Amino acid sequence: MNDFFASWYELLAYFEGFSNDMYDNQIYLSIGLCMTLIPIAVLAIYYYAVNSVKFNRWWHWLLLVVVLCAANFGIAYSISYNSILDIYESQNASPEYSLSTDCLSFSLVNMLWCFAVSFVWSIIIKWGSSNCRRTPF
Amino acid sequence: MAKIFVFGIGGTGSRVLRALTMLLASGVECKADTIVPIIIDPDAAAGDVERNATLMKQYGEIHSKLDFTSKKKNRFFRTEIKETMTNTNFRLPLSNTEDVLFDDYMGVNGMSKENQALVNVLFSQKNLSSDMTVGFKGNPNVGSVVLNQFDDSDAFLNFANEFDAQDKIFIISSIFGGTGASGFPLLLKTLRTSEDLPNKNLVHNAHIGAITVLPYFQVKQDENSQIDSATFVSKAKSALAYYDRAISKNNAIDTLYYIADDTRTTYENCEGGTNQKNNAHFIELMSAFALIDFANSQKPQTAVHKEFGIETDINEITFENLGKVAKGKLRKAMTQFNLFAKYLSENDNFLAQPWAKDRTLDRTFFDGDFIRTLETVQREYLAWLAEMETQQRAFTPFDLHRDSSRVFDLVKGITQKRLLTLDSNYDLFNNRLNGTGGESKSGEKEQQFTELFYLATEKLVKEKFNIE
């Protein structure tokens, strides 16, 4: 799974040193799981529990996905920064790259994937929703 | 295909037919496949006649676009309303009544002196100088002469030609005016005894019902008008005595309905023409309901007489004041159609809803002839309900507001139930439309649309008002 998510992330951007640390310490896996599973959980709630005419326009969906992307940005930044920092601190060393800059860039990539994944999940699960089956289109 | 040929005589006949059209549009169950209205009114320009003919044509246009095979549940516009002859505006034309004075119509000048003297005994000078174009101005003695010509009319012969064994006949007339009071016994006599009719045996032995509307409104006193409310009751009494002798006792009629109201609205005194356009009245609604009752009945052995009454004598009638049968038949259908009408008139933000997108009901569809005609009929329906509220004894079963924040504050006497959903008002309406599938996804767009609204409103009235 780590390989799977690594190939996704590195398809869009590879950061010298940072990407290796992410891969070697299986950090891609936890962030990737959050990026795929949180959207489906939230979208399932949106399509089947909320399932409301009040919130079935495309901009409601877009707002929800933007919030999901923002949350995943935060999650990706937090996990990647803290995990790598912990690893280097335990070795009394420091990374040879700018950790915060690379974490920020990686979190942006994670956000893009989150948007794409949310879109795909929406297309797959929306059809069973009585009021939101035509959302976002 | 059982038909009911409905003769609507005079202004009351047209107004009752208007109420009947509204009931059929709302899907009140009528045990007939087709209603064939035949309006008998010499006053071709009467506002009531014109308004009703237009309404029935629009109804026919909508009905023709819908499919009522056994799988379909939709009851809106289910019963067909059709003309006996095209281009007659549902009217049975009366010959030689336009721009003719009554004495010329009878040819009084060519009569012998003895006959002229007899005419002067039977008719006043005002009667003789009456213009036939606007009807009989409340004079049944005039009507009984002019209307004695039914079986000469092509429309009447056409009716007899179309008459089948399982068909029925219903006659609507008032007893306190001119046209209805005189037209009803003449028409009945023609139906039962005329030897010149096609299918005469079928027509003679047909199941015939009628409603005789007793005084339920009055008109303002006007010295220049021949119509005087003070004579309504005495005219009704005389006519009732005649009906008893000539109609009931010899079983000429199978079922005779009576209806009246002693709480009466006062209308403008209008002898006829385009201004004769009275507001709708509860009495007319229940007269139309008499036809629904008649449609469900079998031909009795001897004449049956029925009267309509409400549970309590109050001036603002709601569904709760109706008897069990009337309430059961009217409440659900009228509430469903009211919701349907309100949705289209108060709401235009539905193109993005799944129910519309699934069926490709786009702007072109909603701008098309079907929806335009439907909206016109629904506007008429809402106006008709509002008119009944204005009467001295008002029928006011609905809260007729235009407030999209309390759509379901609708049926008086019923507190709407709260449902476990985030949606309310028109969002809840759309919610139920979105959740309706099945047969509402088959057939032409018009069919899908109407079926969908029937099923969704049926669900809503059950959930919100516990009306089944």
What is the radius of gyration of chain A computed over CA atoms, rounded to a whole number of angstroms?
17 Å
Which protein chains are joined by the largest interface, and how many residues does each one contribute? A-B, 12 and 14 residues
Class of the largest domain in chain B in CATH?
Answer: Alpha Beta
Number of strands of chain B: 11
Query: What is the first-to-last residue Cα distance of chain B?
Result: 28 Å
User: What is the helix fraction of residues of chain B, given as a range?
Assistant: 40-55%
Strand order of the largest sheet of chain B: 3-2-1-4-5-7-9
For the sheet with most strands of chain A, the description reads: none
Structure classification of chain B: alpha/beta
User: What is the fold named in CATH at topology level of the largest domain in chain B?
Assistant: Rossmann fold
How would you describe this structure to a colleague?
The complex is a heterodimer of chains A (137) and B (468). Chain A has 137 residues and is mainly α. Chain A has one domain (2-128). Chain A is built from 5 helices and no strands. In chain A, helix 3 (27-50) runs antiparallel to helix 4 and helix 3 (27-50) packs parallel to helix 5 (99-125). Chain A is elongated, with a radius of gyration of 17 Å. Chain B is an alpha/beta fold and 468 residues long. Chain B has 2 domains: 3-97 and 135-309, Tubulin/FtsZ, GTPase domain (Rossmann fold, 3-Layer(aba) Sandwich); 324-465, no CATH class. Helices cover 44% and strands 10% of the residues of chain B. Chain B has helices spanning 10-25, 47-64, 102-106, 113-122, 125-128, 140-146, 154-162, 179-193, 200-204, 232-248, 282-295, 324-346, 354-358, 363-366, 369-389, 425-434, 445-465, and strands at residues 3-9, 34-40, 80-81, 168-174, 207-213, 217-219, 255-259, 265-267, 304-307, 316-317, 394-395. In chain B, the strands form 3 sheets. In chain B, strands 3-2-1-4-5-7-9 form a 7-stranded parallel beta sheet, sandwiched between helices. In chain B, strand 2 (34-40), helix 2 (47-64) and strand 3 form a beta-alpha-beta unit.
